[in-house]
Amino acid sequence: MKITYKGIGSDLKNILFKEFEKNENTLFVFENSASFFEIKREFLQNEEMQQKLGIFQNFKMMNSYDFYENVFVTDKIVVKEEKQVVLFYNALTKKLKKDIKVNNYYDIIDVAYNYYNLFVELQEYKIDLEKIELEKWQIETFGTLVEINNEMKKVVQQKGLILPYMLRNVENISDNFLKKFSKICFVNKVKITPFEKELIGEIENRGINVENILQLSKNDFNEEKLKIKDSFSLPSKEIFDKKDINVEIHEFSSKFGELLGLVRKLEEVEKENKRENKKNGNSIRNYRIFEAQENSQVAKSDYHLLKQKKISSNLEITMKDTKIYKILNLIYNLLDNMKEIDRKDKGKLFIFKTKDFYDAYKSNDLLNIFDLEESYHIFQDLVSKDYKYISKEELEKINKENLQKLEKEIQNEEFKDIYKRRMLSIDKIIKFVEELEKIYEYTTLKEYSDYLENIYLNNEKKVKEDKNVKDKYFEALSEMIVLEDFSFDNLWDKFFDENISANLLKLFLKYLDKKSIGLNLEESTEDDSENSFSINSFENISENTKENIIILNLQDSFPKVKIHNFLFSKIQRAKMGLPTSDDKKLIEMFKIYQNILSAKNVYLAYVKDLENNIDSASVIEELKLKYGIGVVKDEISEAEELYFVKKYFLKNKKEKWEKKEIGEFIPSKLEKNLEKINNEKLRLGYYSFKDMKDCEYGYYLKKSIGEQEVEEIEDEINVKIFGIIIHAFYENVVMRNKTELENKTFKIDREQLSEILEKVINSFDYKVPKEYLEFYKKVSFEEILNSAEKYFNELIKELETEKDIEIYFEERIKLSSEKELFENVYINGVTDLHIKTRDKDYLFDYKTGKLKDKKTGYKNDKVYGAMEQLDYYSMMLENDYEKKVEKIVIDTWEGKLVPDERTDDKILTKEDVGEIIRKYQNEEFYDLGNIKNQRNYLYREYANICRGEDELSDEE
Question: Smallest Cα–Cα separation from 495: which of 81, 88, 78, 79?
Answer without folding.
Answer: 88
